[in-house]
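User: Here's a chain of 120 residues. Predict its fold as tokens.
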Amino acid sequence: MSANQPEIDTPKKAGTARIKKPRKGWHPVDIKAALEKRGMRMAWLSRQAGYSRNSVSDTINGKWWPAIERVIADALEVAPWELWPERYNDYGQPVQQGNPNMVKLPRAGRPRNAELKVVK
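Assistant: Prediction complete.
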């Protein structure tokens, strides 16, 4: 490449760039307080996202649920790995509970065991 030609910036694939995770995540009480400060109740946020009323509360209190974690993070305008760094790998992908080396696949990526029946 000559000195007169600009460098071409090639876009990276999603999930290939490392993220900078904090060492420690937010405390559950801090997450609840931040939601309250924004005028959001946990049950209301769960219902708005289309889940049962305890989904947000369960996720804040320890249940690993990437979809709800994303809802909470979007409501607080932060990334999910800022709230729960132990639940995400260095590329921002959710990991399986108890095994940080295994990436958790979304439900859409897994085969279902149910058979579809044609109704006439």
